[in-house]
Specification:
alpha+beta; 8-stranded mixed β-sheet; 4-stranded mixed β-sheet
Length: 317
């Protein structure tokens, strides 16, 4: 999935190939090369390609009849269809389907533990659901382009509002995947402060400074990670986790030998004094009590902890 191409590739066949050579050829055309449908590929399939990044969430994984999440989603999807006009506002129908993609997140953590990797969310928009089955109260297709683009998006920290600014932010990994049907992420920040007081944003790579046994910074400095949650809609509840992924064992060893641990979690702001190298990222869930009035007969079912924000990592090497 090449994005931000500056010129067509020399051979259009590169679009259809999944090889290290095709990735290099697309990158030579200016692209950042991502991979869609991460849940359908193993780490061993993706790692040799030399990708710039991939999807850590894809809506299709929640409902793919060939994939393992559908049995979990199907009861809620059935209730959504049966509720018709008594159910949620159609713009909130995603809440019946939305689950994290744990296999994609596992692969993502194995990648970021070893090299910089951009994580994005993909809507898989095809507008191909049977309209007769998914009639909605507002007369619009459940899977309309307008509706799906309002469900979630990739938010970039750009230094200028331009195409080059978008390209630079993507390449630097200054990005959050946000399910903004649950609320806009106003005020969210994930940063690292180094010993000099300099502040590094999501996507940054910083050298590790070890801490001594007395709790001070060896070598005269230390690193502190800080997460500031977004402003919450009235009545909603938030849960945030600061996760660390790091490779264990010898360099180039078994990718299964990856540590993934929550180093801090809570219902508000988080801070953590870095005590080991790794790739640090934040996951935020929200219990959308503020949407209860729009969820109709399924309110008690759908007011539950739901993925809201995935940050890209800050790398401490």
């Amino acid at each position: 999935m090449p994005v931000m191409l500056t010129t067509p590739p020399a051979d259009p066949a590169w679009y259809r190939a999944r090889t290290p050579e095709s990735v290099q050829a697309l990158r030579a055309a200016g692209a950042l090369v991502l991979h869609a449908h991460t849940e359908e590929r193993t780490f061993d399939e993706l790692w040799p390609l030399g990708l710039d990044g991939f999807e850590l969430y894809n809506l299709h994984a929640n409902v793919n009849p060939r994939w393992r999440q559908l049995p979990e989603v199907l009861p809620d999807l059935t209730r959504l269809i049966q509720a018709r006009a008594d159910g949620p506002h159609p713009d909130l129908a995603l809440l019946a389907l939305l689950r994290e993609n744990p296999w994609a997140l596992d692969t993502y953590d194995r990648f970021i533990a070893r090299r910089r990797t951009l994580g994005v969310a993909g809507s898989d928009i095809h507008q191909n659901l049977p309209p007769a089955l998914f009639r909605t109260a507002d007369g619009e297709r459940l899977d309309s382009y307008r509706r799906l683009t309002r469900w979630f998006a990739n938010y970039l920290l750009v230094r200028e509002r331009s195409l080059d600014g978008v390209r630079e932010a993507l390449a630097a990994g200054r990005a959050y995947a946000v399910f903004h049907l649950l609320g806009e992420p106003e005020g969210v920040e994930f940063t690292l402060t180094d010993a000099s007081g300099a502040r590094h944003e999501v996507g940054a790579e910083v050298a590790y400074v070890p801490w001594d046994a007395a709790g001070g910074a060896a070598g005269g400095g230390g690193l502190t990670l800080s997460f500031t949650p977004p402003r919450l809609p009235p009545g909603a509840a938030l849960r945030a986790r600061l996760l660390r992924a790091r490779a264990l064992g010898e360099p180039g060893g078994d990718p299964a030998n990856t540590e993934r641990v929550a180093v801090a979690e809570g219902t508000g702001a988080l801070t953590f004094a870095v005590d080991a190298p790794g790739a640090y990222r934040v996951e935020v869930s929200i219990t959308p009590e503020h949407l209860r009035g729009e969820l109709g007969s399924l309110a008690d079912l759908l007011v539950r902890p739901t993925p809201w924000i995935y940050s890209n990592p800050i790398y401490v090497r």
